[in-house]
Amino acid sequence: MNIVFSRDSQVRGMDNTVADTEKYFGQFCSLLASYTRKTARLRDKADQLVKQLIDFANSENPELRATMRGFAEDLAKVQDYRQAQVERLETKVVNPLKLYGAQIKQTRAEIKKFKRVQNHEIKQLEKLEKLRQNSPWDRQMIAQAETRVQRAAMDSSRTTLQLEETVDAFQRQKLKDLQTFFSNFVTIEMVFHAKALEVYSSAFQALEKYDLERDLQDFRAKMQGVYGHYDTQLLANTNPSPSVLQSLARQGTLQVQLYRANEDPEHPHANHGRFSLRDRGLRGQSAHCVCGQGGYLMLPGHSP
What we know:
Substrate Binding Domain Of Dnak, Chain:A, Domain 2; 8 helices; cytoskeleton; cell projection; CBY1 interacting BAR domain containing 2; cilium biogenesis/degradation
């Protein structure tokens, strides 16, 4: 019986390992899915900001118009990088976690199988002890009971070895996958922030170069209504600067990049040609991990 109790303690430890994996991997799955959805929402809000910047720029003087259009273009580029971030998070982090429940289910099935074999061994031992107490003179029945106990013990020992191998492989794979999931997460974040920093640095420099005095001169000229017969120096200053000409040349490219910025603000995904978590089944829908008994590996349909 001591051997049986030792095996039972061993199996409880294995069961706890699988249960903890199911619990915490399920939480990782839910939180990272929520993180990805909220990143997509941030992208959508930035798209709306790009649209407002373009509308505002079109109502201003040439110098400010060129600066704001350039800034909007840079901001749109960052959202392209953010879209790539969202897609990679979904593909390399969230989806693998959602599917991890299948491995947990398989390991749990192996543990249940061992428990059935173990219970059978315990029952055979109990029958043998009862027979020895009630019929100590019936040697034939006792011998048969002992034979059944030996067979049950052999089955239990063999199943224990198989279970040890299964749980060891499960633990090894879990550690490897955990390393892979979060390495992918960190890499995706680093790539996005590196590219975004490059674009934002360029945008900052462009904003710093904005000629405020030139715009003020244009504004004052308009307010006085003296186009064509005002100070010649002032009129010269109203000519488009090189930055304006470059911005106008880029306008065609910018309009393509900002295709999704022209959508209805109340329905940010209505006309997306490039991306949408809603279209991909992650945003606005329930997404479930394949889970075991505990039901932990489960993606809620709403953001926590």
